[in-house]
Amino acid sequence: MSDEKGGAVATAGVHYAPKCCVGECDKWGLAGFAASKHVEARWWCWEHYPHKHETPEQREAASIAARLGIGKPPH
Ligand SMILES: [Zn+2]
Question: Ligand 1: distance of its center to the CA of 10 in Å?
Answer without folding.
Answer: 32
